[in-house]
Each structure stands twice: as structure tokens, then as C-alpha cells.
Amino acid sequence: MSERKDVQPSGVPVPCLTCDARSGGVCGTLDAEQLASLAKASSKKRLESGAELIGDAQTVEAYSNILSGVVKLTKGLPDGREQIVGLQFAPDFLGRPFQDESAITAHAATNVVLCSFPKRTLEMLIKQSPRLEHFLLNQTLRELDEARDWMLTLGRKNALEKVASYLLLIARYIDPAVDPDSQSIAFDLPMSRLEIADFLGLTIETVSRQLTKLRIDGVIAVSQNRHIVVANPERLRMRSGC
Amino acid sequence: MSERKDVQPSGVPVPCLTCDARSGGVCGTLDAEQLASLAKASSKKRLESGAELIGDAQTVEAYSNILSGVVKLTKGLPDGREQIVGLQFAPDFLGRPFQDESAITAHAATNVVLCSFPKRTLEMLIKQSPRLEHFLLNQTLRELDEARDWMLTLGRKNALEKVASYLLLIARYIDPAVDPDSQSIAFDLPMSRLEIADFLGLTIETVSRQLTKLRIDGVIAVSQNRHIVVANPERLRMRSGC
DNA sequence: CCGGAATCTTGATTTCGATCAAACTGCCGG
DNA sequence: CCGGCAGTTTGATCGAAATCAAGATTCCGG
């Protein structure tokens, strides 16, 4: 789904004018001229939940900004066991710079809107723009911090603590200031029970049982499977092991 | 342990002339002048196995190059459970740029030699040198790839597969071309059983039992606890789950 | 609004790794 | 060379999560 790439008097391409990724994403680091050249080569894509964005060991020829939705990154074992190794939200940059083959798989966990551009175009811009590279370094460092936090959860927490940690993770994405104020918070899970299990290194059944336990203990309320209300986030945090 | 910072005719500081980190590490990205200013502020440090390099939630005022030895990065839960979230080898750069408080702890896993320099000095150089920032982005991307590989191991492999994967990881560090050629390989483990357990999300006893199993099956030979001989790396790889 | 498929929950049982407990080994100082 | 101790191995038992097996909901298309 391609869009017109007209350039406004200010020099900012028209489709970028109202784009959220321009403030928080890579595009925010570019000057008008660079943004124009990127916009010329870019296109907006809408993907249904479940669609594959990047295949394992597949040559990647595009990078993207996530404009909305949740993308899950997974790795698998030859016998079919799967582990989700990262979640990305808008306005994250999606793709592994400086490497032709992807070692991971990316899927849309919800409906997703992307702004995609060719690998080559971005790599040219990286060479010209230290600010862009600085932005990428910062996002990568943040992802590394998150991955290491999650390693602690995977390696050392029990099933209940894992599920509580997952709910907190999602709650904090919805509202970053979630536990200090201890307000009640409600949200829809962006993932199925199977996906949650693959994220936590558990089985579907164990995830379900821990959710039931939290429900019985009055820590959360669940309706229609995906909708969660956390009455008291502090009680949830206490059960998360940290 | 400070050294003389004399500058050679070529412009390269004397102590850097013979330093391995100058080819593979951050210093390789600097010109003679930048290297001189970094060398002026740097000092070589020797640390005993077990020494703490960076404390959790402690203000970090130094970055380092690892000149030799193995550094382990750990995260802990309030109740004392621990998880190793990364291993770093020479000539890795050690430290979390652009953040004052460390969220992780770093310890010397073996005797370690570092070349340390003040945070400020390096951050100044980063601003001047896109090549340096590019190097850091590349190392960070590599660490992120490793962390995600390890998440799959932590979340989805059983105890035997985890121990086999760990042995392969160390063997590959000793000799990167380890399984294609399937030559026998021998090495000393840089970590105790407790550290291996904390790396794998297991207990000491389970690690020991899996090593015994691999020994009985003839996949490895163990002498004096730390010395390992892998007769046939391919058989080890087959037990690693991938 | 109905029926069927997909997803989720609950229950029974098994299994793997944790825990508890005791012996063994290698290392170091005296 | 001996004794002590930290680190490791081995054994017995327990428990948490996986697996196997039905049911119950939710979702959707007709």
C-alpha cells in the first residue's frame, strides 16, 4: 500500500507530517532532506495478526518502523519447541542492521501497521547520519537490558512469578507509571495463552492455572480471556518475585 | 596500576603498541590523537577471580576493555536467586553507555586484566567519533543476539541440553571452528559448578549429574573438575537440542 | 441465533529437576 | 605428608510443572 510522497513547503514529506514514529522513532533523527529520501522509498503496510514479517534464515531486504501493534520475535528448536525472545511496540525500529540473514523470526502478535523501507536506503542513511546510528545504539541497548531482565525471569522465577511478571510487563507498556501510584489498571492482552507460554518458557496449561490462581486470590479479574483488570498492581508486583 | 603514557614517533602511545584490544577492541576505531587522549586517562588493572567490577544500582564511573580473562554479568532477585545474563571475553568493551546506574552486577569469573578509563573521557570520544559509536552498536547487536540465543536455551531446553549447550559455548570460544571439522577439543572451564548452574538456571547438583551423564556416555572426559576433553564435538552438539 | 471450531480451563498422572543429606576429591597451608 | 575445607559427586525423596485427557468458553460464519 504505497502513498504519495509529496513534499510540503517546510520540507517534511506529507505522509510523515502526522506520523508518530517521526517523534519517537528513527525518523526523528533525520533532517528534512534525509527524511524525504527515506520517505520516497518507504511504504505503509498493514498486517493481520499472525502474519510473518521476517523468516528465520531468510534474507531480509527491508527494515521497518512499527507504527502500531505488537510484534513478537521468536526462536525455535529443530523439534518445534519455541521461545519468544522479544516483543516490540510502536515506535520501535524493526530489523537487524549489518547482517543479511536473520537468526530470528518475527510475527505480528496483533494487527500491525509498519512503515517499511529498503535495507539499502537505511544503510546509506546510517553512513551519513551519526544521529541515526546513535538512535539505533540506544534502542539496541534498551533491548539488551530488556532481554537480560527476561533471562532472570526465564532462568530463576517459578510459574506464578513468571505470569505475574508478564502481566506487569504488559500493564507497564499500557501505562508506564503503573506500580508507584498503585491505581487500578485494565487492558487487553495482546497475546494468546500459547504465545504467553512461549514467552515465559511454560505450557498453555500452566499459564492458565497461574492466571486462575491470581484470579481466585483477587489480584486480577479476567473477562473474555483477553481482558484483564488489575485492581491493585502492588499486590501483583509482590507476586512477581521482585 | 598506572603506566607511562609516552607517545611514540608514529603517534601511537607506547603502552598501546602491543595491546590486543587495539586491533579487535574499541581502540582500533580511534585515530592516533584520540587514542593518545584515551591512553592518558587509562590504567591497566589486574583483578583476582571473584572480584566485583560493577555493583548493582551502583554509580559507574569507568568503562573498560577486557584484555584477558572472563567477566560474568549477573542479575539477582531480592531473595538471593541469581542468574548470569552474559559472559564477556577479551577484547570486549565492558560497560553500559549512556546510563549512570548499572542494572546488573559484573564479576571476574577468572583472573582478569582490564584497561579502564573514565566514563567522561569515553563519552567525549563517542561524540567525536562515529566509528567508535559504530563499533559499540556492533558489539551491542552481537550481545543482543547472544542473549536471545540464551533465552531459547533457558526457556525451552532440558538440563542435559543446557549443559551440552554450555560446553559448546565455551569450546567455541576456545576454537570458533569447533563443530564443522569435528576435531577433538580440550579446554579448562572458566567457571565453577555454581556459576555454571547460575548461567543455566539450574542447581549445582543437576549440572553435576548431567556432566556425569555425558562422561558415562563417552561424550566428554573430565579431569580435576575443570579440565574437559570433548572427543567428538558433533556428538555433543547433537545433545544440545540444536 | 445456531452450530462448530478454536481456544481456554480443569482434572489426573507422570516426570524432571529441586531439595535434603551424605560421602568423596582435590587443593592448600602447616 | 597430613589434615581440613571448599567444591563436587552421588543417593533418596519431594514437589512443581509437563503431559495426557476431558470439558467449558468464546468466537465466527452462516
Question: Could you walk me through the main structural features you see in this protein, from its secondary elements to its overall organization?
Answer:
Chains A, B: It holds the Pfam family cNMP_binding. Chains A, B: Residues 157-234 form the HTH crp-type domain. Chains A, B: Keywords: DNA-binding, Transcription, Transcription regulation. The structure is a homodimer of 242-residue chains. Chain A is α+β, with helices and mostly antiparallel strands and 242 residues long. Chain A folds into 2 domains: 14-153, Jelly Rolls, CATH 2.60.120.10; 157-238, Winged helix-like DNA-binding domain superfamily/Winged helix DNA-binding domain (Arc Repressor Mutant, subunit A). Chain A is 42% helix and 23% strand. Chain A is built from 10 helices and 11 strands. Chain A has helices spanning 14-17, 21-24, 32-41, 119-128, 130-156, 159-174, 178-181, 193-200, 204-216, 233-238, and strands at 43-47, 52-54, 62-68, 70-76, 82-89, 93-94, 105-108, 112-118, 185-188, 220-223, 227-230. In chain A, the strands form 3 sheets. The first copy, chain A, has a 4-stranded antiparallel sheet. In chain A, strand 4 and strand 5 form a beta hairpin. In chain A, helix 4 packs across helix 5 (130-156). The model of chain A has no long low-confidence stretch (mean pLDDT 92). The structure holds a DNA duplex (30 and 30 nucleotides).
